[in-house]
Specification:
about 600 residues, alpha+beta, nine-stranded mixed sheet, two-stranded antiparallel ribbon, elongated
Length: about 600
């Protein structure tokens, strides 16, 4: 047999004509017992609910007193309408059985809107003021980058590290924001960084715990329980403060896990931007999708069928339309016939607080009270207001506490009045996505400036090239080798040039006018293809002396026209770049003295 449960909630709704007013919200739950009962015709009360609810008498229990409720004379345009109900809820409307959904195992993905927009507003103001002079902020070269732009990128994880190489120091970029977009190591699936976050947060073993707070009422025991919170906190937490106990952690065993999770982010700005990026980038393209140059129309999935909304989904969809709910009889406005209980509470204290609960005095001819539920509502009353009691300090008199909330850009030397809310005149979604795209482009340009693209697999660069892109790997150089190759070399006497460097007399030698073979060797000289970094010219086997430029520290043939190799040599730091004319003269001298 079909069953029904109705939840009757009473909400304080101010005063009207000197009387305290409440609104009754009707929340039905229909449960068919078999497939033949999965239609609204199996529930006679709901075939014409406006007619059913007109015969029900209500009362309100406030503390130890019971007060009758009188229906408020509504506007004729908002009176319950049986014809409208039957039009929206016909007898053949599908009714789905109620199935409990356990949301405790649902991962909650969000991002801190206030932190993201605060970062965008702060840096957009600084950059726009600088660009007002007619010049855009400069990004490259790195040593001449604009300090404002450089500081913005530094907050978002653009960092560098200096490596000593002999008597010099080389500055290299560390992995940036693109490490969060790294492809899976094997096949398709989630990204490596996503796997680590899911293991620490989005699972039954989450290192964050949520607390259930029970209302503290007289005569009732309070119970505090915790559960795994499958969501990231809005604000980044300093790992050092987590470890030393400055940030309280309920379970000491989870302290290190939480610290290791926060260590994956360089700071609060990168943490907020990553959450915003992850909120939109929810799927990882598969290998087949990446290999597809353009989408095709073969083997396309059929179009999804439109969902068939049942009775409960239709009722829930009208929740943002209070006037429609009143015409359907799902919201009823009433006034108290006797204001004494609330007036007496106001005489004792202002504001007055308490609990109220709805009661049905007469169910009428068509209503069955067996499955009805009546939750209690905490109320707060003053001389002019009657409203639900807020749980937090974010509300005042039933409204958001927007005191001192504004969108002004307060200078750093002035203190801003504290406020729980801020006002932003921009699109938060577009601002977050554009900021992430700009960050990725800027960090890749900075990485290309050093000719090294950082990845999460190599947090310290195993090899790199100099600004001229001719330096051998430096990370594998031992201190002894670097010191040996960085020692000053014995100066060599200059040699006369016997091979012209260009076909036109008086023309300054250029790289395009260099000989096509290494060390001015003839075309008949046998050359061996290069096998990688650290290769040298093999012209010594043909009776031609190798190029003396940079000696053993040079990794490839300096002419860069023919890559040849005989054996690999330990790399070293690059000395200052020589001029083209000197390089040509040395190459020509080496060929003449062979």
């Amino acid at each position: 047999m079909a069953k029904q449960n109705i939840l009757w909630s009473v909400i304080p709704h101010g005063r009207i004509d000197g009387r305290w007013r409440v609104s009754i919200v009707v929340s039905p739950r229909l449960e068919p017992d078999s497939a033949s009962e999965q239609q609204l015709g199996s529930f006679p009360e709901w075939l014409d609910w406006p007619r059913t609810v007109q015969g029900i008498g209500f009362a309100l229990r406030i503390g130890a007193s019971t007060v009758r409720l009188k229906p408020l004379a509504a506007d004729p345009q908002l009176a319950p309408d049986s014809a409208l109900w039957q039009h929206l809820f016909p007898e053949t409307l599908f009714v789905s059985g109620y199935v409990f959904r356990d949301f405790s195992r649902v991962n909650l993905r969000s991002y801190p809107l206030r932190n993201v927009l605060g970062f965008v507003r702060r840096h957009y103001q600084s950059l726009s003021l600088q660009a007002g002079g007619g010049e855009h902020p400069r990004l490259l070269p790195r040593r001449k980058a604009d300090p404002t732009l450089k500081g913005m990128l530094a907050e978002l994880g653009t960092r560098t590290q200096k490596f000593p190489v002999g008597d010099r120091t080389m500055e290299l970029p560390l992995p940036g924001f693109d490490r969060f977009h790294e492809r899976p190591r094997q096949g398709d699936g989630p990204r490596p960084h996503e796997v680590a976050v899911n293991k620490a947060v989005f699972g039954p073993g989450s290192c964050f715990k949520g607390r259930v707070e029970w209302p503290k009422e007289p005569g009732h025991k309070t119970r505090d329980t915790s559960f795994p919170l499958r969501a990231l906190p809005a604000d980044w937490q300093d790992p050092a403060r987590i470890r030393d106990g400055s940030i309280p952690v309920a379970n000491a065993a989870e302290r290190e896990r939480r610290a290791q999770l926060m260590e994956q982010f360089s700071g609060p700005s990168e943490y907020a931007m990553w959450q915003a990026d992850r909120f939109y980038q929810r799927t990882v393209p598969t290998t087949e999708q990446l290999a597809m140059r353009r989408p095709g129309f073969e083997n396309m999935a059929p179009a999804p069928e439109p969902p068939q909304w049942d009775f409960h989904q239709r009722v829930a969809s009208y929740g943002d339309h209070p006037q429609l709910l009143r015409r359907l009889g799902l919201v009823l406005d009433c006034v108290l016939e006797d204001d004494a209980p609330i007036d007496q509470a106001l005489d004792a204290a202002i504001p007055a607080t308490g609990l109220m609960q709805l009661q049905i005095e007469s169910p009428g001819q068509h209503h069955l009270v067996g499955g009805d539920r009546f939750p209690r509502t905490a109320w707060l009353a003053t001389k002019d207001r009657f409203l639900p009691r807020p749980r937090s300090e974010d509300h005042a008199d039933g409204l958001l506490r927007l005191l001192h909330a504004n969108d002004s850009h307060v200078p750093g030397d002035q203190d801003k009045e504290p406020s729980a809310f801020d006002v932003y005149q921009l699109d938060p979604d577009g601002a977050a996505l554009k900021t992430v795209d700009f960050l990725l482009s800027a960090q890749r340009l900075v990485g290309k400036h050093w000719n090294w693209v950082p990845t999460a697999r190599s947090p310290t660069p195993p090899a790199t090239t100099s600004r001229w892109r001719r330096c051998a790997p430096v990370a594998s150089v031992s201190p002894a080798t670097a010191a040996r190759h960085s020692s000053p070399r014995r100066p060599q006497p200059p040699r006369r040039t016997t091979t012209p460097s260009s076909s036109r007399p008086g023309r300054r030698p250029t790289w395009s006018s260099m000989p096509k073979t290494c060390c001015a060797a003839t075309a008949s000289t046998s050359m061996t293809p290069a096998t990688g970094a650290g290769a040298r010219c093999s012209s010594a086997s043909a009776g031609i002396r190798p190029c003396p430029r940079r000696g053993r520290a040079h990794a490839t043939c300096h002419c860069r026209r023919t890559r040849a190799t005989s054996r690999a040599h330990p790399p070293a730091a690059p000395p200052p770049r020589p001029t083209t004319s000197t390089c040509t003269r040395r190459c020509s001298a080496g060929a003449a003295g062979a």
